[in-house]
Every structure is written in structure tokens, then in C-alpha cells.
Amino acid sequence: MENFSKFPWEERDLAQQLTNAKKLIDCQASHVFTELFDVTGYADDSSSSNHLNNAIVSVKDLFDVKGYKTKAGSTFLNDVDIASEDADAVKSLREAGAVLLGHTNMTELAYSGLGLNPHYGTPITPLYKNEARIAGGSTSGGAVSVALQIADIALGSDTGGSLRIPSAFCGVTRFKPSQNSVSRKGSLPLSSSLDSVGPIAKTVSECEIAWGVMSNNIVNNPAAKEAHFVVPNNFGMDLLDEKVKKAFTELVNILKQTLGVTVEEKALPFLDSYKLLPVWQFSAFEAMSYYTENYDIDLDELDPRVASRLKRANTIDEKQFLATCEQRKLLIDRYKKKKKALYYYCRQLLYCLLN
């Protein structure tokens, strides 16, 4: 792996940075972590060639960390066994030199985009100094830990926005990679069909190197000189608040005026079919199945907002859920065929232009 960017963890005084992080946690982040790890064994070695040497990483409370319990922001998992080994993503970060700071707070079972947690308190976004506003979820504590500069990188997950939403609410950067690029082994699921593992950091470059470490991919991508964006006007724009719509339109206009960037606004027909897919079934059915099969779960002990979502699984049976899975598969196949046809067309067009 190669990367020529400079990162804040390079040539730092690790002991001082950890002291600063502890002070920030005590003063501003009482609800950001569910548990702090023992960091006394980490040695400051600025001469190491490890890509994340001295980088401080917070870990969402979905991922196993050797020597600690994984509780998914819940209390019914308080009696689970201590993890005997790291989750794959955690192991990759540790082997790259990262300092693991603690398990971060989250929406219970990762089942909400708000970041509320009645058991451990609710992390607050630092963007509004004099107001207590939610940090978004479900990776709420992770996003706040980066926004407050407690951690350089937060390890999180994303099923329907759990990296993207809190990062937007906290003014930081995130990357939701393709599901199979980072191993989910050693993490608790919300939806095995949709869960992805990814990082939150301050910058794109920091997210990129964290993802590179976890996925074992070479990171040496120069900034693109050209980019083509498609903004679908038939999806995601319904019922927007005027402030949000105005801000989004202003951003699109900035992109349109940027050298080398083209923006196309058009309808994408397959998204009309996607709207008919009952996406909620994946998290409800798969999470309910996993936790009832593996744990003695009492829904009355859960955050009532999370419990109500899980209970939706009882409104469908396995046959209906399998039909939804097939519907999703057909949509994916349809998209792949369209993408393949577009690639073939572009290749033929390029051949004609060059010959």
C-alpha cells in the first residue's frame, strides 16, 4: 500500500494526544463511549512504517475487541462473554498500528438513524455549541469522537445510512464501501443482506487509508481531473424541507461551475421500481431472526423505538421475506445489465473515435 499524504497521527506525541483525548471525553463527551479500553500498553513509535501508527481509533460497539464485551448499545447483552479475539476489521486496524480507544455509543442494535440511546445517553453533535442536538445514527458516538478530535478514525457500520447520517450531522467525512470489500466477521448484524463496514474521519484521504487497511487494497489514487455526476430527479427529493432543498441546490450549482465536473439531472427508471421494494423488511426480519435465535431477548428491555421496528418482522412470514429478497435480486440484475450495456456502448464509441 502506498500513500503520500501527511496525516495528523504522523510524528505526534502519542502520550500527550491520549491525555488530551481523555480530557475531552471527561469534559465534552460523557455519552460518546460505552466503554474505554486500556491504552497503557501502546508504545509511541513514530519511526514505524505502519500506515496507522499512533492513529487513535474509536470502535462502534458492534465490533469485537479482544478482552472486552460487545453490547451493541444495549443492556440485555451485558452478560455476554468477553471477546476472545478481534473482529477482522479491528484486527486489520490494530496490525496497522492503530491505538484502539474504546467502544463508542450507538443506537441500540444499530436500528435507527437518529442516534438516541436510553441506556447510555445520547451523543450530541458539537456543531451547535449552545444547543443539544442529536448526532444522528446509528454510529453516533463514532462521528462525535472524530468531530471532537478525540479519535482520528471511527470504525462503524452502515445499513441504511448509519455512517452517512451521523457524519453529515457532525460535519465529518465517511465512506460506505461495497459490502464485500471489508469483512464483517466479528461484528453483530442488523441486516446481513445490507450491512457494510466502513470508516469515519475528518478527510477523504483519512477515510481512504483506513478503508485501504481494512480491505487490504492499495491506496494511491490521485485526485480525479474529471468527474461526472448524475442527480436522479425521481428519487430522494420528495418532501424536502426548503432549507435542505436550497442547500442541496446550491451545492449542485457549485459542482456545475467546477472545472472538469459535469452534472446531469435526469430520471433513472430503475429507481421507480426500487421505490416499490419494502426495504424495511431486511433489517426487521433479519435482526429479529438473529437476536431471537442467539440470545434470550426481551423486547420490553429495549429502547421502545427499536423494539417497535423489530416487531414489524411479525407482520410478515418467511415466504414473504424470500419474495422480497428475490425482488431485490432482480433489481440488482437489471442494474448490472444496464451498466454492462452502457460500458459496451462507451467502448464501441471510443473505438470509433480513435479509428
How would you describe this protein?
The strands form two sheets. The protein has a six-stranded mixed beta sheet, with helices on both faces. Strands 7-8 form a two-stranded parallel ribbon. The two termini are 37 Å apart. Helix 2 packs across helix 5. The chain is 37% helix and 12% strand. The chain has helices spanning 14-28, 88-95, 140-147, 164-170, 204-215, 242-256, 269-274, 280-294, 304-311, 318-354; strands at residues 33-36, 56-60, 99-104, 153-158, 173-174, 196-201, 227-232, 261-266. The radius of gyration is 22 Å and the shape is globular. The protein is an alpha/beta fold and 355 residues long. It has ten helices and eight strands.
Summarize this, please?
The chain is of the alpha/beta class and 355 residues long. It has helices at 14-28, 88-95, 140-147, 164-170, 204-215, 242-256, 269-274, 280-294, 304-311, 318-354, and strands at residues 33-36, 56-60, 99-104, 153-158, 173-174, 196-201, 227-232, 261-266. 37% of the residues lie in helices and 12% in strands.
Question: What are its keywords?
Answer:
355 residues; alpha/beta; six-stranded mixed beta sheet; two-stranded parallel ribbon; 10 helices; 37% helix; 12% strand; disordered C terminus
Blueprint of the fold:
Blueprint: H1 14-28, E1 33-36, E2 56-60, H2 88-95, E3 99-104, H3 140-147, E4 153-158, H4 164-170, E5 173-174, E6 196-201, H5 204-215, E7 227-232, H6 242-256, E8 261-266, H7 269-274, H8 280-294, H9 304-311, H10 318-354
Parallel strand pairs: 2-3, 2-4, 7-8
Antiparallel strand pairs: 1-3, 4-6, 5-6
Helix pairs in contact: 2-5, 3-4
